[in-house]
Structures are given as structure tokens and as C-alpha cells.
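Final report, results section. Input specification for complex C-07:
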Amino acid sequence: MKALVAVKRVVDYNVKIRVKSDGSGVDTANVKMGLNPFDEIAVEEAVRLKEAGKIDEVVAVSCGVQQCQETLRTAMAIGADRGIFVDTTDDLQPLAVAKLLRAIIDREKPQIVILGKQAIDDDCNQTGQMLAALLGWGQATFASKVVIEDGRAVVTREVDGGFETLALPLPAIVTTDLRLNEPRYVTLPNIMKAKKKPLDSVKPADLGVDVTPRLKTLKISEPSKRSAGVIVSDVAELVRKLKNEAKVV
Amino acid sequence: MVALVIAEHDNAHLKAVTLNTVTAAAQCGGDVHILVAGSGCGAVAEAAAKVAGVAKVLVADAPQFADGLAENVAEQILAVAGNYSHILAPASAFGKNVLPRVAAKLDVAQISEITKVDAPDTFERPIYAGNAIATVQSTDNVKVITVRGTGFDAAASEGGSAAVETVAAVADSGKSSFVGRELAKSDRPELTGAKVVVSGGRGMGSGDNFKILEPLADKLGAAMGASRAAVDAGYVPNDWQVGQTGKIVAPQLYIAVGISGAIQHLAGMKDSKTIVAINKDPEAPIFSVADYGIVGDLFEVVPALVKELG
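Structure output:
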């Protein structure tokens, strides 16, 4: 059976982002970009399922600007077999991405679709759930363990206060949490091999999907700054300040 | 305009974060209704009816809601969604799991983790790990929203007298089934609602060393938290994690011990009223957000602090 993974190109997680002074957005010019960390975990999990003989093929999909093809090459260097690039310069919101992915899933007919739980740029945490709803499939979000057995996925999820385990008949949607796995380093030979793997390109219009944004961003601003604190010399001074100045103990 | 709040509960108690969500719902203008979908959840419905500012409580009581499965709860919300202008849930593991399903079925965008209501169709929400605030306007006819609890005060849990109405339960979807649950037991306050939080990071060195934070947490009646580094190192359970991808807290006092202060961690705690940092590295980024910092060995400072607090 086939696995499909969705990957997003985002600003590298180590970058300290800068808000544009005119409030129109975040400055992404000349900023290091990379594969969203949760999506990296998703690709790794699909590749591990393939290595375990549970699935035969891993297809990676990315939606957005031309450079998303680099993100797909990274996914293929981890071990995805081929890539599908949805070519658009439109501002894609999660609902639009879910609709694009649904259209591709209708063509590809995967048995399991793995996404990251959230992208570290918009911090939405929606796409996987929306996709499951559009397809009418079951969902297991925030996964920390995935077992495929007897035509179903048994998934342990991270929830507030601990873990819970669900069983889903396939096909199903899984979104990854941090502790699902440790993604492998991509090696140079695998990067070279990834360049030769097939990468198809498609436009939203070919898929019959309207990607018009539903949310209008009025402005992007800096969060309020905290005023500079003080370094205290000893514990006695700290407790005095907490009692008298901050009045929190 | 009427707003529907999806109650988070464990079939016996209404979770506190529901109260913050009610406040956000009230700010959207109009009446506030609460939907309680659960199994044997009568006590929760009673508690919801007492919440100040709530006009009506809808109860769907059936076995298929016992474990909060997203497929079933989302269908139940859709079954009652009819005339609501806003549908809100807490931005907890539960709300984040369920609500995007509802939004997609209604063919509307979801607005995640709002921290402020500017107008009934305009909201503020943090992006890029809290390093920027986006003000967004929804053009959809129904606003589907998850609410960051720390961004809103809790509605009073007493004083209301809402009518309780039973609604027909939707059938089990059969798309997922519950296998089991493993919850960490703790006598301490819940992390997201605690007035004081004591957190440890990689600098703690080991899981055993977290014990030195316990007397401090006991003294302050604090919840205990951790950075991702401490969780990944296996020092403490993952539900202690404070940060962009863990819990978001905003207590009166946050004490960060042996935490360097990575962007991801700051996203989870920088709205705390007072932040204290204890770290041996004077260059640690945590000092840039701390109100009070002590540069020193945590294994000396923490016991001394407990002693000084008396």
C-alpha cells in the first residue's frame, strides 16, 4: 500500500524572524528556509513504515512557490520515492491546502496520509484534521507511535495529561508530534539520488481547487516587549524583590 | 448573533479552560451557549449551566462521546451548528483535534489560538512561535475559533442559571475507536491553570535532579513544567513541556531553572507576569525576558531559595 506525506517549506526554526516595519508581514527575503520540522518527522515515519515492509511507496506532496521543489527533494533524500509539486504563488491557507491534498489523494489513492501536526510559521494545527474531514476519514493527531496491523492503524497520541491510543480503519490521517521519531540525517549520496527521483508538477486549477484565502491578514505586528529585568546578587535579594516589588509570593 | 462554546470535560468535571473560552465567546457579542458532548456527563452540564454569562446548555449524552473522539464530537457540533455565528473551543489537545474538522465540513477557515477579540470578525493570534502577532479578519459567515486560555480571563463558574436542553446524539462514526489511556498522576495544580510554575531544563542534568525543584514547588503551591530539552532527554513526562508545541502558560510567577530560553520555550511562557531565571550562564537568552535573574549553580541556588522563602 501507499503512503502520502505532506511537506511544507517554512522559515528555518533557528531563525529569529523580523516583522516588517509597515506591518505587512514577516521578512522572509534572504532568510534560511527548510522543511517544517514536524513534516520531517512525517517523512521519516513513512520511510520507516516502508522499511518495515508495511507500505510499498512513499509519495511526498508540497504546495506553494517554485522553491518548494527543494523541500520535496529533501523529503526524497530522506527516502520518499517521488514528489508532487502543486505550483502556486497564492497565499495558501490550511483549508485550501487540505482541498489540494484531497484532490491529489483522489488520484493517488494512498492508504495512509501523514502530516506534521503544525507548521512552525502560521502555527495553525489544522490541515490534517481538515483533510480528514473532507475525505470523511478517521484521524489520529499528535501521534507519538504508529503501528500498522490487520488493515488498521493503532496510534498513540500525546494529549493534555498523558497519552491515549486509538485504532483507525485504513485509509486514515495521522499527524505527527515531536516524539514520534528522530529523523535521519540526509547523506550526500542520498541527496544525489533524490535529484533523479520523479517530481511531477500540477496547478491548483488542474485539480479544480479554488484556493482563495478566507482570512484576510490586516496586519502583522511585533509582540509587546518585556521591560529589561535585573540580575540580583543573591537569593535573599530575590525573595525581597518577589515579595515587595512583584508581590507574587 | 449567538456563539457556541464546545465544553472540554472528562465526563465528571468541566475543564477550567472552558471558562476562558466563554469569556472570549462573550466578547464576540451576543448570547453564549455551551455544548456538552459526553457520556454520563450530567454533572458537567450542571456545572456549565452555572457559568456566568451562559444562556443555554446543550447536552448530547451517549456512549460514543465518552472519549472525545474527534469524528463523533465534530459530527455532533455540526448537528447543532445551524444558527450559530461563532463556534469556539479551547486551544487544548481536545479543541485543536476536533474543531478544524468542523470548519472544513462547514467550508470555512478556522482561526487558531486567538489571544484577543478586536471585533466579531477580527481577531489577534500569535504566529512564528509568538514572535509576531497577526490581526486577521474572517470573511466566512461562521467563525470557527480556538481560544488560547491564557489570553482571556476565566468566566465566573458560579452565578449563571442557563437552561439545560438535551439534544439528539449523532450515531457513532465508526471511523476510529478508543483503545486506552495513560494519564500521568499528579497532586500538583494543573500546569496551564497554575498561579505559579517552576520549570526545569537541560541544566537539571537528570530526572532525579528534578526532585530538588519539588520543595520549591511545594512551598509556592506551584505546578511543575519543563523545557523540550528536558522532556526529550527523558527527565520528565512530555505533558510537562512548556513551549510552542507544548503547553502555553501565563502564571503570576514563572521560575525557569537551568533553561537556556530557546525561542520555542519562550513562546510558551513569555506572557507570565513575573519571570525568574536561575542559570549559571550569564549569556543565556532566558535573562532577556526575565524580570529577576540569578547567575549561579541551580543546585545551590534552589535549596537556598527554598530556605529563604521560609
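DSSP finds eight helices and 16 strands in chain B. Chain B has a mean pLDDT of 96. This concludes the modelling results for the funded period.
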